[in-house]
Amino acid sequence: MRIYKRDNKWAYDIHVDDKRKRKSGFSTKKDATAAARKLLNDYEQGLQLDHSLIFKDFYMEWVNVHKRPHISKSSYKWYINALNIFTEEFGEHKQLKDVRKNDYQRLLNKYGAKRTQESTRKLNNCLKAAFNHAHDEGIIARNPAKGAVAKGKKPTASEDSKYLSRTHFEKLKDYVKTKDDTSYLVIYVLMITGARFSEVADMKYTDLRMDNRIHLPGTKSDTADRLVPASKKDIVFIKQRLDRHPIKITGSPFSISHTAAQKALRHAQKQIGIPEDKWITLHGLRHTFCSIMLDQGIMLSTMSKRLGHANVEITQKVYAHLLEERELEDDKKMVEYLEAN
Description:
3 domains, 5 strands
């Protein structure tokens, strides 16, 4: 280690891992010596700082190595969405070392101002995990995500707003059947299967079987890949609608974006007279389907398999309030029976 004075300022000149490190501009010899010793100490502790590493490049490598092999497609999409939000705020070439605590907190504040708590939390979880890894590996000396607060200010939709009434559900189903666009056909498939959007988007032509079943390629868990019963007339209708469109060489009939399908759903709800404050999302179709089936007396265990949940406990937790309503109705029926006999 060499400490020297140049142009009335102190500087250091050291070699680390066969690389020469020099820096000048220190007011005193003591400051230059302390900075040089800190750099040496950082290297000894594994802090091999890469001052040119682009965050986007680091993040994608981390996701593809540590996350993608172990998570569902929908979870992977969330990690990519988090990166898109980051690059939209900071640009494609933001260096990992240049992300400061204030920068990161401002990103969460800006995003959370128009999002729900859950959405803001997911964004923070994805990005924070990457920064934690970079810090643990000694790639950055300070973790900008440590202690960050993820607060969403948009109220989470109430349970009632996640469901359509049975009357509106049937009207919506009749309306989408009159439309030729693939977006509306996707909505129809969601309504008769209770599937997730990602599962329908990943379907192949061969998944529409003529044995009164539809194959849903699972995207959430090992148990999500399943065959669900369907009426023959529904399968025939879907095939006839698809025949009006060119066959895609990818083998996927429903290659549309979530945004396009959601836009079509909003338009359909408007056209059949559903008040805007009662509009639901694509996932709300799944909730509505389950609500109607439970009301029909379908067993919870049967619905759990139909929805592709890993176990009945998940179904019970998600639809706890519906089950409570059914329990009250069942209690009433039991009392009426006992009073009549």
